């Protein structure tokens, strides 16, 4: 691999918030490691052998469906100045995040590569090791390449990192949701800021975009490291004064408490892993626990033009599955439910139309 055209240095440790205590609710438990898997990129240790999902009662369908339904939507991310999907093939993808070009495993890249081998060889970092969904591995980097660097997302600077589970702190396909969310928040009419709840909020990029769009944000993640990363991004973006609550907690338990408190949110983001573990060892299984979480979401979503966005990765199901359960639990409200897939378009070969790489499925509700 040749050195990238721009120097990439480790992020300064001076501004890192690792020593700051994340804000907690009084009843929020302390964090332990949780496994998380998104698509083919794991966030955290592998799911423990024999772990079982929590058993919860199945929620009831509430009345006839009143919401309009848009099934089979395809939301495509074309990339932006600081992100490009350059090429894919032979089980890998070549991407550029800011100044750093990286190679990562991608089982859906089953076809041939389009760019020359020399372009791939010039990447600054390549993930090596276990290619299974939950398997950790290592990064092979060129001399002078740091493990952390900056890029910009919708104008905001954020920190990327080469983590042991092949992700870098941002899932670029989500920008399709983030732009839509920001438009909804800016269109909010009322005497107070719109309130947004970001469950499984990860490194906080969506929370920062929402805050910049005028929202009062509650960011919840079970990982103390992810919340600290989010706070670091907040400081880097110059949004220290933005109204964001950073909470280390189990997403389901937090939502259950919000139901009991009678809280309401104008927007809710759900970005759950396939498997996960909460601060007290609570085991999350998307297939088993999503109905309960959506039922909680239904109860804390404000009336009128409020919205909910659900993204699902790495489940053996069609987007129709999450569409139908979303419609069962939110379709009794007037509005629109749109479901489909998120994809990223390849942009590295200007001589040919870029291919699409499917990344995840989604369902989102917008109230009327």
From the N-terminal CA to the C-terminal CA, the straight-line distance is 53 Å
Order of helices and strands: EEEEEEHEEEEHEHEHEHEEEHEHEE
Gross CATH architecture: 3-Layer(aba) Sandwich
Any idea of the CATH class? Alpha Beta
Structural class: alpha/beta
Shape: globular
The total tally of domains equals 1
Radius of gyration: 20 Å
Total number of strands: 19
Which band does the percent of strand residues land in?
Answer: 25-35%
Strand order of the biggest β-sheet: 3-18-19-17-14-11-12-13
Give the uncertain stretches in residue-range form. 2-54, 131-135
Describe this protein's structure.
This protein has a single domain (37-46, 62-367), classed as Rossmann fold. With 368 residues, it is an alpha/beta fold. The N and C termini lie far apart (53 Å). The strands form five sheets. The protein has an eight-stranded mixed beta sheet with strand order 3-18-19-17-14-11-12-13, with helices on both faces. Strands 4-5-6-7-8 form a five-stranded mixed beta sheet, with no helix packed on it. A two-stranded antiparallel sheet has the order 1-2. The longest helix has 15 residues, at 286-300. The chain is built from seven helices and 19 strands. It is globular, with a radius of gyration of 20 Å.
Task: Tell me briefly what this model is.
The strands form 5 sheets. Strands 3-18-19-17-14-11-12-13 form an 8-stranded mixed β-sheet, sandwiched between helices. The protein is 21% helix and 30% strand.
């Amino acid at each position: 691999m040749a050195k990238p055209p721009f120097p990439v240095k480790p992020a300064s440790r001076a501004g890192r918030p690792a020593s700051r205590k994340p804000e907690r609710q009084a009843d929020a438990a302390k964090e332990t490691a949780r496994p998380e898997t998104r698509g083919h990129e794991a966030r955290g240790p592998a799911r423990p052998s024999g772990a079982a999902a929590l058993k919860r009662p199945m929620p009831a369908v509430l009345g006839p469906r009143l919401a309009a339904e848009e099934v089979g939507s395809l939301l495509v991310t074309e990339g932006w100045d600081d992100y490009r999907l350059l090429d894919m093939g032979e089980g890998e993808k070549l991407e550029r995040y800011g100044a750093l070009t990286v190679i990562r495993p991608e089982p859906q890249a089953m076809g041939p590569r389009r760019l020359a081998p020399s372009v791939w060889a010039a990447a600054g970092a390549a993930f090596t090791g276990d290619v299974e969904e939950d398997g950790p591995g290592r990064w092979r980097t060129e001399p002078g390449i740091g493990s952390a660097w900056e890029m910009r997302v919708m104008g905001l600077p954020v920190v990327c990192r080469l983590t042991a589970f092949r992700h870098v702190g941002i899932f670029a396909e989500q920008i399709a949701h983030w732009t839509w969310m920001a438009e909804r928040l800016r269109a909010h009419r009322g005497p107070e800021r719109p309130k947004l709840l970001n469950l499984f909020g990860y490194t906080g990029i969506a929370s920062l975009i929402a805050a910049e769009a005028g929202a009062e944000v509650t960011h919840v993640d079970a990982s103390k490291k992810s919340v600290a990363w989010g706070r670091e991004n907040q400081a880097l973006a110059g949004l220290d004064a933005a109204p964001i609550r950073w909470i280390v907690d189990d997403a389901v338990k937090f939502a259950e408490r919000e139901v009991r408190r009678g809280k309401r949110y104008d927007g809710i983001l759900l970005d759950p892993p396939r498997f996960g573990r909460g601060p007290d060892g609570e085991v999350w299984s998307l297939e088993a626990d999503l109905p309960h979480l959506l039922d909680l979401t239904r109860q804390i979503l404000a009336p009128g033009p409020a919205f909910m966005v659900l993204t699902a990765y790495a489940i053996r199901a069609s987007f129709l599955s999450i569409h139908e359960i979303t419609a069962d639990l939110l379709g009794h409200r007037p509005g629109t439910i749109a479901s489909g897939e998120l994809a990223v378009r390849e942009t590295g070969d200007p001589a040919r139309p870029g291919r699409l790489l499917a990344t995840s499925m989604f369902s989102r509700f917008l109230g009327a």
